[in-house]
Amino acid sequence: MKRIAVLGSTGSIGTQTLDVAAFHPERFRVEALAAGTNIELLAEQARKFRPKMVSVATKELADRLTGMLPEGIRVLYGEEGLHAVAAENDADTVVSALVGSAGFRPTLAAIDAGKTIALANKETLVSAGEIVTARARRKGVKIVPVDSEHSAIFQSLNGSRMNDVLAVTVTASGGSFRDRTREELEGVTVEQALQHPNWSMGPKVTIDSATMANKGLEVIEARWLFDLDYDRIRVLIHPESIIHSYVEFYDRSIIAQLGVPDMRVPIQYALTYPERPLSPASSLDLAALGKLTFRPMDFERYPMMRYAYDSGREGGTMTTVFNAANEVAVSRFLHGDIPFLAIESIVEETLSQHEKKKADSLETIQEADDWARDTAKKLS
To answer: What is the architecture, at CATH level 2, of domain 315-380?
Structure first.
């Protein structure tokens, strides 16, 4: 039986991870759960799975949560609580599903503790890919991707040598506004932006999908997961989200992974790799679907893709700044502080003001992250 801990258990990936665990009770034991402020859902999860420990954002929430749980479940909070859920328990696999840079330090703690990482928090590699991958190699820790696109590449590469890979192609749905011109994006609302046509995701990732920042983050993450330079990572718009990504080899063969757009498929694969037990997702019916369509990536329509590639190629702290500025801008949009298109301009201006440094220490990365957030908060 595999023992798992989930960082971000009340979010979209976290709840679907627990769906998989419930579907295979003979395979999984939930050891620990960490959430933010949704103590009602966390309490429900804890009563169902009986983890040994849970963690929430603050002491006040922890005090409230304690009275909602059965005896014997340890209740923690804050940074110490996240660290405990990540590293101080009997889990052999940690699902890193916190949204944004909050997942960075707990993921490192799980690596240091020798846990296998099922990685859904792409910001960890975007902000500090060199440090994280080097530490995982040093500790002998495997990082298995959860994102559908990286899982697809991971699956397509099985049994192949990286020396034989010409390029990988990450597919993108195009997001909520894929059929709108840039002129038609003026004045779009938060509610409209959150209507993703294919996937069930949290608010931040759904907005990132609409701007294509999410795909930019995935490109940077792919660079570190698969040790590829940016010229060998491509992006293709595929509105149906059936081909989740593919690999082209030097002999011109292409291997792709297909499936219905259901995150429980890559989540389960990350937890059961290399086995493939029955999934709670439905089967793909290609005959009923009829056709698949594709569009080239348009870097003028989606400038966030250009910023991602540029910051990735420039390296150092630039990708940290790209991620942090985007997090702040998306939060400001979700709170009604800025219009949709200002997300792009804030990220661009923050990047242009940054003086790049080598991303060779956690302190340097944290300084760049803090600087980018402060800068992005002041721009309009």
So the answer is: Orthogonal Bundle (1.10)
SS3 label, residue 46: helix
Q: Domain segments of the chain: what residues?
A: 2-145, 150-262+281-293, 315-380
Q: How confident is the model at residue 99 (pLDDT cuts 50, 70, 90)?
A: confident
Task: Estimate to the nearest angstrom the gap between the alpha carbon of 86 and the chain centroid.
Answer: 17
Instruction: Give the pLDDT confidence score for residue 116 in this predicted structure.
Output: 98
pLDDT for 323: 94
CA 364 – CA 49 distance, rounded (Å):
39
Per the DSSP assignment, residues forming a β-bridge with 295 are 237
User: Does residue 332 surpass a pLDDT of 90?
Assistant: yes
Residue length, the chain?
380
Checking if the pLDDT of 100 tops 80, the result is: no
Kindly state which CATH superfamily the domain 2-145 is placed in.
Answer: NAD(P)-binding Rossmann-like Domain (3.40.50.720)
d(CA 120, CA 96): 6
H helices of the chain, in order, are 12-23, 39-49, 59-66, 78-87, 104-112, 123-139, 148-157, 190-193, 203-211, 213-226, 264-272, 286-289, 303-314, 318-334, 342-353, 362-378
> Cis ω on the peptide bond leading into residue 339 (within 30° of 0)?
no
Q: Which of 302, 297, 298, 299 has the alpha carbon at shortest distance from 341?
A: 302
Whether pTM exceeds 0.90: yes
